[in-house]
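<goal> How does this chain fold?
<sample>
Here is the protein in question

***
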Amino acid sequence: MTGVDEREVQHDIETPAPVQIRFGIDFVAASLADATVVMSMPMSGLRNPFTGAPAVGPLAILVDAAAGMVNHYRRQRDRWTVSSELSLEVSANVNDAMADGAPPVVASARAVGSVGATPLALCTLMCGETEIGIGTVRSAFIPADGVTAKQPPRTLLRGTPTLGERMAVQVDTGQHGAIVLRQHPDPDLNNDIGIVHGGMASAGLELAASAAMNADRSGDRFQTASLRVNFLRPFFAGGTSSYVATPVRVGRTTGVADAQAIGDDGRVALTARVTAYR
C-alpha cells in the first residue's frame, strides 16, 4: 500500500455518498492492505427508459464504484484517481440479477498487477451463488493539489423512482431519428470534483446503444453482453448534455453500436462500443 489513511477506506472522490445512496450501493467490506473492495447494488426493476426492457448498463455504476475504489487505495497520498477506461462483460445469467425480487449484485474487486502509471482493477459480479459477469476499471492519477471535494445539497426523489429518474435522463430524438438520451444536471450524480460519475455516464451510454440496436423491435430484443468505455475528458452536465448512439451493425443474432457522451460544452467526453446478442 502507499500510505492511504484508514479513515479513507469508505471515501473515494469518484463515488461519493450521494451516488451510492441514489443507486442503493452498500459498502460490504474493504482491505487497504490487500487493496480489495466488496460492494453490492440492487438491479431488480431497473429498466431502459427507451425500451422498457431490463437494463444491463447500471452494472457499470457498481463496477466503477468497486474497482475504482481499489485503484484509489493504491495511489500516493498526493494523488487522486479518475477513471480512464471501463469494461463490463456479462453472461446470460445476468437475467437472474434483473428478475423481480432478485438479491443485490455483489462486486468483489481486486488489484491486477503493479500500480504503474495507470492502475488496473478487476471485479467479479455475483447474484446469489451465480457469477453473472466481470468488470474492469483502469484509472489515471491526477495531482491532489487544488482538488476540493464538493458536497452540494442533496436532491430528493420521492416514491420509487424509475431508472431514468435516478439518472436524471430523458428520452429524446435527434436528427434523422437518431437515439438521444438527455443528461440533466443533478449534483447527486457528480463525483467530488463536480463531473458526472463515470459509472453513471457509462450506464447512459449503454442505455442509448441498446436502444439504437433495438429500434422498432418489440420482441426478441438484443441484450447487451459487452460494454467498453473510454473516458476522454470531464463530462459536465447541463442544458445540452446528452448520450447519442448509432448502430454499427444489426444482424440476425448479433448487434454492435457506438455511443458518445457529449458534455454541455459540446465536446465528446466519453465513447463506448456495445455488443449485444439475441
Notes: The longest strand covers residues 130-143. The CA atoms of residues 118 and 140 lie 5 Å apart. Residues 6-145+163-277 form a domain with the Porin fold (CATH 2.40.160.210).
